[in-house]
Amino acid sequence: MKTFLLRRFLAIVPLILAVTFITQVLLIASPGDYFSTLSESPSMTPERLEFLRAKYHLDTENVFIRYWYWLSGVLTGDFGYSFKYQTSVWSLIGDRILNTLLLAVGALLISWGLAIPLGILSAVKKDSIVDRLAGGLSFVGLSIPSVFFSLLMVLFAAKTGLFPVGGLHDQVYWDFMTPWQKFVDVIWHLFLPATVLGTIGMAQYMRQMRAEMIETLSQDYIRTAKAKGLSLRTVLFRHALGNAINPLITLFGFSFAYLLSGAFITEFVFAWPGMGRLTVDALIIKDEPLVMASIVMVTVMLVAGNLLADILLAAVDPRIRLE
Amino acid sequence: MSAEAAAGRPLLSIRDLRTYFHTSDGIARSVDGVSFDIFPGETLAVVGESGCGKSVTAFTIMGLVPVPPGRVEGGEILLGDRDLLKLPESAMRDVRGNDISMVFQEPMTSLNPILTIGRQISEAILRHKDVTKVEARRLSIEMLSRVGIPSPERRADEYPHQLSGGMKQRAMIAMALVCRPRLLIADEPTTALDVTIQSQILDLLNDLREEFEMSVLLITHDLGVVAEVADRVIVMYAGKVVESAGVVDLFERPGHPYTRALFRSLPSLEHRGEALQVIPGNVPNPLDFPSGCRFRTRCPIARPECATTDPQLIEAAPRHLVACPFSSDGGDAQ
Ligand SMILES: Nc1ncnc2c1ncn2[C@@H]1O[C@H](COP(=O)(O)OP(=O)(O)OP(=O)(O)O)[C@@H](O)[C@H]1O
Ligand SMILES: [Mg+2]
């Protein structure tokens, strides 16, 4: 187990090198740089522009030189300063990553918290009204585009006033709130974006949970468990669930990783200050140090998500040994 | 042997049991009017070709027929004074694993891969007996040792994939017997195992039957197994019992043409080297059994009347029932 974790941890290094190098290539290959947009400003002289480009090593198109400048900084623990905000990239990313994590965990709780019980229920009551209803719901869930659903929810929030239309917390009263009030306020703001993001995966997980559960319930060892006189509840939760959920744990890792890196649209619609927006904004204006650091962070989180799945899997299934 | 079987009341009485499966292709009458008794302490073998309804009979006794598509259409299963078919599910759960246990055909897949052997055995005890977890574990280990599993303390903490096929079946037997049931149903317990391990398991079952004073309902299609361990035999064909007799009686004077055909398809000591005779024709489809006698399509002595009259089990000799009115008319001529 320890060696497994260590190995996985070390494997992250070449992965990050590869991903950041490719990002560097793409940044150079696409036209313009951060200062191109500034060049239109009347106060910007060509000399000053040249000076700035040289200072930030944007004056060469050689990928290896540019990458080396970045990497040598990173190796000394310096990821650089954001061109735009003129502060260390970590001070920007630090908060954002927590917000993204919050949104991802909220979405996971909603999608898995609904998908697993509904999937089990549909499997146990196969072909009943409950099953059909859940099936219909998941069909709707799979067919609604998430952008449309996001906008629908924003509209709902705006019309009813039940939920805030966006943001991480209240802008006006935040500084006057007690810690508990702050917590409630953040949850209240989190609810709609997490719901939108959660429903994207929910339908799929529910279907899979249902299928796995039906498959598991037809296994011989379930019959053995029943033959011992165990109650349906014990058979379901002690004997079936652990086996049925196995394939979903891998999916859980993927979904976590996906939520961490792919929540951009939701973050945008709900003005949620997360990593997605930060990264995309940085990409658009070519704020290179910020782009590179974000990419590193997202990669680490992707690997962490999958690692989490591996560890859970080993905990559930004794046949899997992490070596 | 059958002397003790003949004495006293049966432990379990099955009367006119019918279990059908309602499939999209039609109704499969897998068990269609089966009656037999199991007496205390005896081993009753149920033999018959694949698909004749042996397992479905066993599942019906256990109340484990999958509903739907299965449905018990009628009959009685009397355990003492109680009709198991009339028991509510909660009462039936108290019977399962406690009064009647079952060992299944497939030891490889019949144990839960994610729970330890010890846990799977002790949960049966904890379900039915008023004992502590520590006590249940002790009893499980004792039972593992009784069924011949070496270093049982260690094995109790292992998972099924760490055990061989024979060991798994021993663990299954331990699990089934740990609550000391009065009846053990063993559904082809050795079919999936190596020949050498097969006889070890059969010997074990025989020893345990004597030690625990229980009855065994042994399902098999292997007449060799029957000869080795059974006291009495039920022969099933197409969802019906066609013959029922003591084991010696059956082997010496098989009555039903189907039973005789089964013996001819068996490699016997005297006829070693002779070509085996396979029963001609196919097992009839349970969705569409022939009218009258269901064996008539493959029967060497079939007559026109066989298509119209349903043969009843009649006493051809004392305690020897045969469902063929023409069985004494030289059915063995071929
Ligand atoms: N779940 C089910 N759905 C539909 N039909 C079934 C089901 N289970 C059993 N049957 C039918 O019942 C018939 C009898 O099956 P059963 O398993 O009792 O045979 P068997 O005598 O135990 O055979 P084998 O020696 O192969 O185990 C089969 O022909 C099958 O078509
Ligand atoms: Mg069978």
What features would you describe in this structure?
The complex is a heterodimer of chains A (323) and B (334). Chain A is an all-alpha fold. Chain A folds into two domains: 2-75, no CATH class; 89-316, MetI-like (MetI-like fold). Chain A contains 14 helices and no strands. Chain A has helices at 2-29, 34-38, 46-55, 63-75, 89-124, 129-143, 146-160, 179-217, 220-227, 232-244, 246-261, 264-269, 275-285, 288-316. The N and C termini of chain A lie close together (6 Å). The model of chain A has no long low-confidence stretch (mean pLDDT 84). Chain B has helices spanning 2-6, 54-62, 89-95, 117-128, 133-146, 152-156, 165-177, 195-212, 223-229, 247-252, 257-264, and strands spanning 12-23, 26-38, 43-47, 70-79, 82-83, 100-103, 183-187, 215-219, 232-237, 240-246, 314-317, 320-322. In chain B, strand 4 (70-79) and strand 5 form a beta hairpin. Chain B is globular. Helix content of chain B is 31%, strand content 23%. Residues 1-5 and 330-334 of chain B have low confidence and may be disordered. Chains A and B meet through helix 9 and helix 10 of A and helix 3, helix 4 and helix 7 of B. Magnesium ion binds at residues 54-55, 105, 187 of chain B.
